[in-house]
Amino acid sequence: MRRLRGDEIDHLASLPRVKRASVLNFLASLPLEIGWANNLANLDRDAKVYRWNVETRRAIEAGIEVAYTEEEDGPEIWWEDGSEKRGGHIEIKGTFTD
């Protein structure tokens, strides 16, 4: 597990139809010590309370997955433009459906 870099959080917060402030706040304050499952439970609770759209939920979920990737170089994120950053693979697309 690792803290997300600012550019990773910013990318996720910049995806289409994502509630930027929600993604920035949730991922910047991600408490890694409570574990992956508890962070996903917190996401589920907050998404219901704040009525986040699916794009916002998926962006935050992708950030949680990145934070808990055990690869030494960190995960590989495929940006919308097709470029990649660092090792591992989580594909993040700009549009999602329920």
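(ticket continues) Second input and output from the same batch:
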Amino acid sequence: MLQNLRRLRAAELQLLLTVLLFFAAGYLLVVAATRAEEFIPTVRGVADILWPSVLPFVLFLGISIGMSWLTPRADQIILPLVALLAGLGLLLTARLEPSLVARYGGIYQGIDAKQSVWVTAGVIVLALILFVPWDSLFRRHMRTTLMDWLDHHRYVWLALGMALIVATFVLGTDPNGSGVKAWFNLGLFSFQPSELLKIILVIFLASYLDEHREVVSGGYQLGPFKLPPIPYLVPLIGMWGIAMGLIIFQRDLGAALMLFSVFLAMLYVATGSGMYVVAGLAAFGAGSYVLYKVFEVVKTRVAVWLDPWATAQSTGYQIVQAIYALASGGVFGAGLGHGSPAVVPAAHTDFIFTAIGEELGLAGTLGVLIAYILLVFRGYHIALSIPGRFRGFEQLMAVGLTTILAVQTFIIVGGNLRLIPLTGITLPFISYGGSSVLMNFMIVGLLLRISVGDGRYSDVGRALSIVMRRNGRLTSDSSPGKNECERTPRSRRAAHRHLAVMGLDDVLDDRQAHPGAGVLAGERSVHLVERQEDLLLGFGGDADPSVLDPQDHT
């Protein structure tokens, strides 16, 4: 019994319980302040008020306990941070609902319960990503792993992303009357395809840049820029075209800025060249300036950003009221339920950050920003912890997924504070919206799944180094970034698939389940790799994956 208790992720559970108690008190405070429903001081009365908050948090606790047994290596800080932000979103939606109904009518009735359903569904998606044995299923039926399957079908993801963009152009609807047809009406709910598109494009870019990173970072010289060969330049130009197309046809400035920023971040990490970032920003700025001169909607957004008071009773009304709301909040805010955040249109979606500033003050907004900074830091920490020799795809994907959360937060907070022109985008986990919540939980699930395998290939890498040194392929003082297996993506992928076929993934999974068996796992790794020495002799060149069959070399 005591041994099982030691396996619990204590830090994560303590943080989750703290968050749960914090938001339980917040819900009771909101009910008392807004008088949205009668408070009955009984267990049933408290449960009726708290269920929207308690149900997702019970699932969070269940995930934490499950991770203690199934994925103990996963990051222990990300889940409490997500619970904090999602809980704050539920709390603010419950607080805003009565004010929105009183001001704008019954269209906002029940948004608290709807948001709770979406958050609960998101937590279930997170659990499915973490606890379903995807690698075992893919190895059994496709002789590969989940991450390799995502990696090897990049053009399928690209085609799916393009299909989503075209479908949005043709079938998109505008339920908010904002002029942006960026939703699919699915009857019971609306779905925003750009939320799924951002994940799809990250998978494609991670796969493409991982395989061609050396080619993309090399190429021919053009003034101060080193450009890759033309065939490898086409996908890079295509990303710029997607961003401009979203602005031209969809008027979706936020999605365009987010997708292009994620692309530049991944390109910089893959190549290490800051000139790509400078050139990309210059191209985006030039394209945006041309569109500003041509399209009225872009010109209106910029004009409102520069001087909202000139049109304070029309197009500038929303941002002017947001400025007043932030100013009235002061340092500590008016208190939950004591402000008037519903005066700002879309206070539950695009301007929820101003609602935080009005009722929780500068202290509350800084607390929220610190939570986002910590979440982004942990995401990049996962990427930095990944050994790049065999897991370059996962490393780039972790960078891209984390950058989505970082850029999305910057865009919406910057728009609320008038640092940049306002764009229609949601604040991750806090803003009301089903598709955004689901996709953000999917991002967190993928990050946690990637973090589980941080040490997955440690024994394999050590075994490969032993064999390669014996055959003169790697000297003891060779740096990992310069040896041949690091420079040749094709041979790296071939060896990776070879090790999966040999069953080393199962060995290392056993090692995670039984930490004391780590030495034995390492010895077996060395033994198996040495048995395949005749194949690894060619590991420094372009090994043909078709010959990597252990049945022919045992």
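Agent notes: The mean pLDDT is 76. The first strand starts at residue 184 and ends at 185. Closing as not reproducible unless the customer responds.
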